[in-house]
Amino acid sequence: MDKTVNDTVIVAAGWIQTGTGIGNDIKDLIFNVAIPVLCGAFVVIVGFRTKAPGPTIMAVIFAAIVWGSSANMDTLKDKTTTKDITEYDSGRRPSPMAGDQ
After folding, report:
1. How many CA within 13 A on the CB side of residue 22?
2. What pLDDT digit, counting tens, does each position of 61-90 carry?
3. Is residue 38 part of a domain?
4. pLDDT at 75
5. pLDDT at site 44
6. Over the stretch 6-60, which tens digit does the pLDDT of each residue have?
7. I need a surface site. Which of 1, 35, 42, 54 has the fewest CB within 10 A?
8. What is the domain extent for residue 83?
């Protein structure tokens, strides 16, 4: 009773591409719509709640930093290199200076 079955079963027929497409759409929606809308809402809410120019200006600056950072993710992802991570994992850290102890 030695039966060998040589049938190919495709388990994820199209699901991988569908998941990738949905993930990319959600990522685009978050970075291109949700973050700018939330930054704008943050500035408006702070402005109406405080009715003062100082906190509103700081809210604008903070929202600009968040929005700009999210818009430049492709540039920011290259700031940490594999060398940095390898050196950290191996325990090679710079020695502390006199005031850092």
Report:
1. 6
2. 999 999 998 888 777 677 766 666 666 666
3. yes
4. 74
5. 96
6. 566 566 657 667 777 788 888 888 888 999 999 999 999 999 999 999 999 999 9
7. 1
8. 15-90
The reply to whether 95 falls in a domain is no
| Domain contains 9 | no
Cα(15)–Cα(22) distance, integer angstroms: 10
> Count of domains in the chain?
1
**Whether pTM exceeds 0.85:** no
Answer yes or no: is 34 within a domain.
yes
- Nearest to 43, CA basis, from 27, 70, 66, 72: 66
DSSP secondary-structure letter at 13? T
Query: How far, in Å, CA of 86 to CA of 13, rounded?
Result: 38
Token digits for 34? 């949700």
Rounded to whole angstroms, the Cα distance separating 24 from 51 reads 39
| 20, containing H or E segment | helix 15-29
Report angle CA 88, 93, 97 to the nearest 5 degrees: 150
